[in-house]
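Exercise 7. Given the encoded structure of a 191-residue chain, write a plausible sequence.
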């Protein structure tokens, strides 16, 4: 029997990634809609960890079930780590404008994801993952969401040009979810 876990997100792209990765590790991932929750917790933290915890804790209080929440974003070296935790407030057009005229070697960036897992007893655990790359000079690809069309994972290939399986194998969220799944596997084996 699969263990139920609530994914604390209203982002359809994130929910699809949670389901695809966690179902293969024995979880039945429930959306907020499936649990009857219709809120969007306000992200008032200044770090990815703080925002993930805020979302997880609020949804856990309502769902009374294990919850997984993430906060993720893009850090661009040339912009001193911006947009960071405020990534949702900007878009690819803003980013490409800010990097106009900046050579490729100064366009290094990374996606960051921090997950907060709260188990059925209310205990918290964090799992973080990154994916290194560069910001492209133009949008390329139609898969994915957010900054995927401008985030190059290798020369000329953006995250939005990958299949879902390719993306999940190397993405920041995929890496964080793999750490979470390994934790669950280890703790299940020791019980």
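Solution.
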């Amino acid at each position: 029997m699969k263990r139920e876990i609530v994914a604390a997100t209203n982002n359809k792209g994130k929910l699809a990634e949670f389901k695809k990765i966690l179902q293969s590790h024995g979880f039945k991932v429930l959306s907020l809609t499936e649990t009857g929750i219709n809120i969007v917790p306000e992200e008032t933290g200044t770090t990815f960890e703080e925002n993930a915890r805020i979302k997880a804790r609020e949804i856990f209080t309502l769902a009374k079930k294990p919850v997984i929440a993430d906060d993720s974003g893009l850090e661009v070296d040339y912009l001193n780590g911006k947009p960071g935790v405020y990534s949702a407030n900007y878009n690819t057009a803003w980013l490409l404008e800010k990097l106009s005229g900046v050579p490729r070697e100064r366009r290094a960036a990374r996606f960051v994801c921090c997950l907060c897992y709260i188990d059925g007893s209310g205990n918290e655990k964090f799992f973080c993952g990154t994916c290194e790359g560069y910001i492209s000079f133009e949008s390329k690809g139609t898969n994915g969401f957010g900054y995927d069309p401008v985030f190059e994972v290798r020369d000329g290939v953006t995250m939005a040009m990958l299949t879902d399986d390719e993306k999940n194998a190397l993405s920041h969220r995929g890496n964080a979810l793999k750490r979470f799944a390994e934790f669950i596997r280890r703790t299940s084996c020791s019980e």
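Remark. The radius of gyration is 17 Å. Students should compare their own answers with the one above.
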